[in-house]
């Protein structure tokens, strides 16, 4: 037994819904944007704070050096330094109101004085730094890894009033306030990120659920159609909101309509074939049983049964071919998407052919086209349509053997007509003449070999190419079949 293989590639079970992917993707995207923004703001803010701290250190070092300028190198000692750093009776290290002195008295400042020989003489706080970069402000890093902290260092040369170097000044700024500010900022940023990611994830999930509702509707409809392929369910499309998902829903609805139409056509085909083949099969079976019982010994009965069986088999062959033609006509918009056919040339060819086949008939042609007129249609199909209509006109025109063809154009359409002057059709039959297997005169149609499918095939072909066919008939006076087809290209010979 041959294993059934699906033409659809099986995909593994999904582990995360598109909604969650959308929500998490939105959260990650916003997180990355927020981080980049936070880094930018942090860098700008920290640079501004450090610039301000650097400026204050430089100003403090300059003022202190100026206050010590009146001293000579041998006068640079603890007592002289303390004396010179007193401003308006205030002590440098204890609550001075001098702005510069207030800066250098900060708890995160360490001030050290050195002689010009490099000997430390006045430490306000103990320092392990040595004089290496006079008149420079630079960064110095303490600690390792997570405990790594940055501080500012300013080294200043002390010059007396005679321009002679008498010593050095070193100011260390541990940036305690700076680090405290940024610790608070980092905490606030972390809280904002956590809250923001939560809100963005919730909003993203809700928004994705709203946007993907058409997809959920499609899935719901498809799941229902798995259980009942003929269910009328369709994806609902918003009337005042149209986007790519709405277009997808329209495509799905169109696909479902086509699928159900093909299923109906398949069922109709099977039912029609089984119904129409029942009679000829029964006739052949009856004659074969007759021959099997006793008829084979009677040459007359044998010849008659064989003739009838061959006739019915030929009819079955024609019926099957017409059913296949009808099925192809139902799918013409899919199988024949492009073709250039000159209507004028085809109608002239069919007119000439029928003149030769039926010399006892009069065939007229009224051509009002200015030149070759092209329609998007297979030439074989257009010929088949005209032959079906012409053949019917000949069959039902026994008294007045006359058939007229006409072709003209009006705007974007070309119009063809086939007229006979035969029996005509009453209004009740005219309304059903394009139905499958419908015969106006069943006995006569069967005698003439008709299966009642010709007009159905013609209608399906015409509608498949975007055209239209209609019937005008008066009982006892004849019928006119009018065809309208859209023009693809119109060329006028000059």
From TrEMBL:
Q: Give the domain of life.
A: Bacteria
Q: List the SMART domains hit by this protein, alphabetically.
A: HATPase_c, HisKA
User: Where would I find the Histidine kinase domain in this sequence?
Assistant: 272-489
Instruction: List the Gene Ontology MF annotations in alphabetical order.
Output: phosphorelay sensor kinase activity
InterPro entries from the entry? ArlS_N, HAMP_dom, HATPase_C_sf, HATPase_dom, His_kinase_dom, HisK_dim/P_dom, HisK_dim/P_sf, HssS/ArlS-like
- For this UniProt record, give its keywords in alphabetical order, as a comma-separated list: Kinase, Membrane, Phosphoprotein, Transferase, Transmembrane, Transmembrane helix, Two-component regulatory system
* PROSITE patterns recorded: HAMP (PS50885), HIS_KIN (PS50109)
- Provide a GO CC annotation, any one: membrane
Query: Which positions fall inside the HAMP domain?
Result: 209-264
Q: Name one Pfam family in it.
A: ArlS_N
Top-level enzyme category: transferase
Per the record, membrane topology reads: Multi-pass membrane protein
Against Gene3D superfamilies, the record matches this protein to: 1.10.287.130, 6.10.340.10, Histidine kinase-like ATPase, C-terminal domain
Q: Where in the cell is it found?
A: Membrane
Q: Where are the transmembrane segments?
A: 22-45, 185-207
Q: What is its EC number?
A: 2.7.13.3
| CDD domains found in the cross-reference section | HisKA
Instruction: Report the catalytic activity.
Output: ATP + protein L-histidine = ADP + protein N-phospho-L-histidine
User: Main localization of the protein?
Assistant: membrane
Alphabetized PANTHER family for the sequence: SENSOR HISTIDINE KINASE ARSS, SENSOR HISTIDINE KINASE CPXA
List the protein's name. Signal transduction histidine-protein kinase ArlS
Organism, per UniProt? Weissella muntiaci
């Amino acid at each position: 037994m041959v294993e059934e293989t699906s033409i659809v590639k099986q995909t593994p079970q999904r582990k995360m819904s598109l909604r969650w992917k959308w929500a998490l993707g939105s959260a990650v995207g916003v997180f990355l944007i927020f981080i980049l923004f936070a880094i930018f703001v942090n860098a700008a803010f920290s640079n501004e704070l450090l610039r301000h701290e650097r400026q204050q250190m430089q100003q403090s070092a300059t003022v202190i050096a100026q206050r010590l300028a009146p001293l000579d190198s041998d006068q640079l000692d603890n007592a002289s330094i303390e004396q010179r750093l007193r401003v308006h009776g205030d002590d440098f290290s204890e609550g001075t109101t001098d702005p510069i002195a207030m800066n250098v008295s900060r708890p995160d400042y360490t001030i050290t004085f050195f002689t010009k020989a490099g000997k430390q003489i006045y430490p306000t706080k103990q320092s392990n730094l040595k004089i290496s970069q006079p008149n420079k402000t630079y960064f110095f890093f303490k600690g390792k890894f997570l405990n790594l902290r940055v501080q500012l260092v300013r080294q200043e040369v002390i010059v007396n009033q005679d321009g002679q170097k008498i010593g050095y000044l070193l100011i260390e700024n541990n940036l305690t306030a700076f680090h405290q500010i940024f610790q608070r900022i980092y905490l606030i940023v972390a809280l904002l990120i956590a809250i923001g990611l939560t809100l963005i994830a919730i909003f993203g999930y809700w928004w994705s659920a709203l946007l993907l509702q058409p997809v959920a509707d499609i899935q719901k409809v498809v799941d229902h159609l798995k259980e009942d392929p003929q269910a009328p369910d369709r994806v609902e499309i918003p009337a005042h909101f149209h986007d790519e998902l709405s277009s997808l829903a329209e495509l799905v609805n169109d696909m479902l309509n086509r699928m159900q139409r093909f299923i109906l056509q398949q069922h109709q085909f099977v039912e029609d074939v089984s119904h129409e083949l029942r009679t000829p099969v029964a006739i052949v079976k009856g004659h074969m049983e007759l021959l099997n019982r006793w008829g084979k010994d009677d040459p007359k009965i044998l010849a008659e049964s064989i003739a009838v069986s061959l006739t019915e088999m030929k009819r079955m062959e024609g019926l099957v071919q017409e059913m296949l033609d009808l099925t192809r006509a139902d799918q013409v918009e899919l199988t024949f998407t492009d073709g250039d056919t000159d209507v004028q040339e085809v109608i002239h060819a069919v007119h000439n052919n029928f003149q030769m086949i039926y010399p006892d008939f009069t065939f007229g042609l009224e051509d009002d086209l200015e030149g070759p007129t092209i329609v998007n249609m297979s030439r074989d199909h257009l010929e088949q349509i005209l032959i079906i209509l012409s053949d019917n006109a000949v069959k039902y025109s026994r008294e007045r053997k006359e058939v007229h063809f006409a072709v003209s154009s009006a705007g974007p359409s070309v119009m063809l007509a086939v007229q006979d002057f035969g029996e005509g059709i009453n209004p009740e039959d005219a309304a059903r003449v394009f139905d499958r297997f419908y015969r106006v005169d069943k006995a006569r149609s069967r005698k003439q070999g008709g299966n009642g499918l010709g007009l159905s095939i013609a209608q399906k072909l015409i509608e498949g190419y975007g055209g239209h066919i209609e019937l005008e008939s008066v009982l006892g006076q004849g019928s006119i079949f009018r065809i309208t087809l859209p023009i693809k290209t119109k060329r006028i010979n000059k």
